[in-house]
Amino acid sequence: MPSVVQSTRSAIHHTERILFSPFEIQRWFALGFTAFLANLGGGFQMHSNGLPKEWPALGEWIQAHLPLAIALGIALLLLVLAVLVVLNWIACRGQFMFLDNVIHNRTAIREPWQRFRQPANQLFVFQLILGAGILVGLLLLVGIGAGGAIFLRPVFEQLGHAGRITAIAVLVVAALALFLGLIFFALVLQDFLVPLMYLKNLKPTDALRAFLRDLLPGHGWDLCRFYLMKLLLGLGALIVIVVGGCLTCCIGFLPYLSSVLTLPITVMFTCLNLDFLAQMDPSLEAFPVQETQPCAGDTQA
User: Is the pTM for the entire model greater than 0.85?
Assistant: First the structure.
C-alpha cells in the first residue's frame, strides 16, 4: 500500500540532495528559470486599489462610441487569449524541462528545450482541446439548467415543502459531485500526466488512459490520503510564501525571483508526485541510482 508519509520523507530527502548538497546559488537561478517557465500558464494575480478617477469619463466615451468600443473590446480579448495561449505553450515545454532537471539533478536549459518539443506540443494541443471541451460542457449544463428551471417551474411549485427541499438537495449533491470530479481530474492531470508521458514516452491521451486503467483502480483511497497531505503541505507552503514575501518587502513576489525563492517548495512537491507514482507502480521509479552528468553545451549553474 502506498504510504504518503514515506513519499513526503522521500520528497524532502530529494529536495535536500538537489538544492542543498551542496548549496550553489547559481544552480538555484538556473533551475528556478525552468520552474518559472513551467508555471507561466498558472494564471495571473490582479490587484486593485479602487476605480481610477478616469473610469466615469471612460464610461461616457463607451456610450458615445459603442460600436468602436465593442470592436476594441473584442480585439483586446483576442489579444489576451493569444498571450495566454503562448504562455501556456511555453509552460508545457517548461514542465518537461523542470521535471527532467529534477529527476537528473541538473540545470540544463537549451538541450531539453529542443528534446521535449514534440511531447510538449502534444500536451499543449491536448490541454487546448480539453479546455475547450470542458468550457462547452459547462455552457451546455448552464443552458440545460436554465431551460429546466423555466420549464419545470410549474412542477416545482406544485411540490410540497419536503419535496422542494429534496429536489434542491439532489441538485446540490449532483453539482457538488460534478465539481469534485472536475477538481480530481484537474489534479490528476497536473500531478501525474507529465510524469507518465516522460517516464513511459506516451502521448497525453495514452498517459491519461494508463492512469485510469492501470493506476487508479485499487488506489482510490490512497489518492485521497495523498491529496489530503498535499492540501496540508500546501497550506503550510502558502504561509511560508506570504510571510517570506512580506519580509522581503514584496520583492519575493516578483515573477522570476519568486520561482527561485520558492524552489524548495516546487522541487519538494514534484518529488512527492514522483515518489507516490513509483509506489503505485514500481516500474515508474524516476530517480536514477547515480546522478547523470549534464550534456555538453547546456546552460549550467
Answer: no
